């Protein structure tokens, strides 16, 4: 059997960054980034919902005609 290597199994995530963001300026930057992320998530969710509705409204015969 193979021997296990010592050390970390992979890269640790979430340990980088955050150093330059200390203080009030960093808080503002973080808030702006969070708002952008939330907007992107909302857009993605809307796109998914639209696709689902289109698929439900078309019957399989109409779908075959489109292709």
UniProtKB/TrEMBL annotation:
- Enumerate composition-biased segments (Basic residues): 38-48
Q: Where is the composition biased (Basic and acidic residues)?
A: 17-37
Q: Where are the residues of the annotated region Disordered?
A: 1-49
Name recorded for this polypeptide: Uncharacterized protein
């Amino acid at each position: 059997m193979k021997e296990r290597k010592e050390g970390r199994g992979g890269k640790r995530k979430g340990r980088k960054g955050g150093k330059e963001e200390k203080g009030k300026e960093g808080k503002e930057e973080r808030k702006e980034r969070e708002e952008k992320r939330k907007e992107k998530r909302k857009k993605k969710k809307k796109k998914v919902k639209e696709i689902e509705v289109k698929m439900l409204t078309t019957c399989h015969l109409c779908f075959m005609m489109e292709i």
